[in-house]
Write a structure and sequence with these properties.
It contains six helices and 26 strands. It has about 450 residues and is mainly beta. The protein has two domains: about 35-55 and about 105-165 and about 205-250 and about 290-340, Sandwich (Immunoglobulin-like), CATH 2.60.40; about 250-285 and about 345-454, no CATH class. A hairpin with a 2-residue loop joins strand 9 and strand 10 (about 185-190). The chain is elongated, with a radius of gyration of 39 Å. Residues about 15-20, about 155-165, about 205-210, about 365-370 and about 440-454 have low confidence and may be disordered.
């Protein structure tokens, strides 16, 4: 009897042991197994890029940005000038114009560029993804161009749920047997029952993410690093804002620029001469003949190749192999600044015969010789506004800007004695022309009179 009982116990034990283990795919792992890594020889991932001006729009200042006292003062001033209720409400709700002031020195050798770099995954597998990328931008060591900063190294990190997958896997095994036997005239019977259920439930959320960037910056090198997390492919665009300093043109610059304001009143009528505001600023200019400013690109990466298991979204059942490449050269260079970006042009008032330029008496703080300075304006709009003011001025004699006398000076004679006072009649014979300071001169043009001295 004892031997029979031992037999039954052994049968039940063997069955239970066979049912106690289920083959569970390791879906929660990063992969099922890992093959030996290999050199990809720069075949699976390529990079391209371009640069645009980086413009950060400024938020307009409204009455809501002022404190209580500022709001009260603004409303009081508006009530003195605007009687119509509807117009008063519109004026109070309008953005406040910032105070314009001319900085004494303007650096036109520094440029903010928005660089867009695109990673393309050319691997053949549908589940292969770029897991790591190192992008290197390099300026020529021999030139004067350099990187001076970046202010958008890290993109916004966020995630958006786009789908959810849920997998339920259950297995049930049972044993319902009857075992009987006899020994030494004694009968024994057993009816063991065995049942086991194992379950595996996994929920996978598919997400689109903005991957954080890190990197280092020196005067000649910009290095951007990307490291993905599980399920995220680095294929796509990387956007960074770089500040680039171009080599300075110390032969033709800096340029003395004239800033004239308050030429008309609120009704659009010409302002009297004594109420016109005039200032100057020095503008440092880039060497446009050294353009374009280009950066060589190199790419290092690691790609996660799925050998088997790409039929499922979950990565835990994948057999993967990592393929890497270092310092893959890129044939085309990244153009950061073109010659048009580096060009600096001013606008001048010239006689229609092309022989004379309009100049103004030295402004306070201006260095150099004692003769008048040519008027160089930063835009043609400003130049035409000044010309319109001259032609419509109420002065019948010599024209002045804020009590500073205006002159008409011969183009090729650097002598104050050759300059004659400018009148409204002479102003009616003027035109607006441009002068290119730091690039190939137009045929027949000469350097303007009284260029700023260093």
């Amino acid at each position: 009897m004892m031997r029979l009982n031992r037999l039954i116990i052994c049968l039940v034990g063997l069955f239970g042991a066979s049912c106690s283990h289920f083959d569970q795919p390791p879906l929660a792992n990063r992969y099922r197994s890992l093959d030996a890594p290999r050199d990809d020889e720069c075949r699976s991932v390529v990079i391209s890029g371009f640069a645009l001006p980086a413009v950060d729009p400024e938020k307009p200042t409204t009455i809501g940005n002022l404190d209580g006292r500022g709001q009260a003062t603004l409303l009081a001033e508006l009530s003195k000038k605007i009687q119509d209720p509807a117009a008063f409400v519109r004026a109070a709700a309008s953005p406040l114009a910032p105070t314009q002031s001319a900085a004494p020195i303007q650096d036109n050798t520094r440029f903010k560029r928005r660089v867009v770099l695109s990673l393309e995954n050319r691997s053949g597998g549908p589940a292969d993804r770029v897991a790591f990328a190192r992008i290197l931008l390099e300026l020529p060591e021999a030139g004067d161009h350099e990187f001076v900063g970046w202010n958008k190294l890290q993109t916004e990190f966020a995630q958006v749920d786009v789908a959810k997958l849920k997998r339920d896997e259950r297995a049930t095994r049972s044993l319902d047997t009857k075992v009987s036997g006899s020994y030494a005239g004694v009968s024994a019977e057993a009816a063991p029952r065995f049942s086991e259920e194992q379950g595996l439930s996994e929920e996978v959320a598919l997400r689109q993410r903005y991957v954080a960037l890190t990197g280092t910056l020196t005067s000649k090198h910009a290095e951007i690093l990307q490291q993905s997390v599980s399920g995220v492919d680095l294929t796509g665009n990387v956007v960074i804002d770089l500040e680039v300093k171009a080599g300075e043109d110390e032969v033709n610059g800096p340029v003395l620029v004239t800033v004239v304001s308050n030429l008309t009143d609120k009704e659009g009528n010409p302002t009297p001469q004594e109420k016109v505001s005039i200032a100057t600023k020095l503008v440092r200019i880039a060497d446009a003949d050294a353009a374009p400013v280009e950066a060589a690109m190199a790419l290092s990466y690691r790609i996660r190749e799925v050998v088997t298991g790409d039929a499922t979204i979950m990565e835990g059942d994948d057999v993967v192999a990592f393929a890497s490449s270092k310092n893959c050269p890129v044939t085309s260079k990244l153009v950061l600044l073109t010659q048009d970006d580096l060009k600096f042009t001013t606008w001048q008032l010239m006689s229609t015969d092309g022989d004379s330029l309009v100049a103004v008496d030295r402004v306070s703080g201006d260095s150099g010789s004692s003769h008048p300075k040519d008027i160089n304006m930063e835009s043609n709009v400003e130049a035409f506004e000044l010309l319109s003011w001259m032609m419509s001025s109420s002065s019948g004699g010599e024209l002045r800007l804020a009590s500073r006398k205006l002159y008409l000076c011969p183009y090729a004679i650097d002598s104050v004695e050759a300059c004659v006072p400018l009148t409204r009649a002479a102003a009616r014979k003027l035109t607006v022309t441009d002068w290119d300071w730091n690039w190939t001169r137009k045929p027949g043009l000469r350097r303007p009179l009284a260029a700023p001295e260093n």
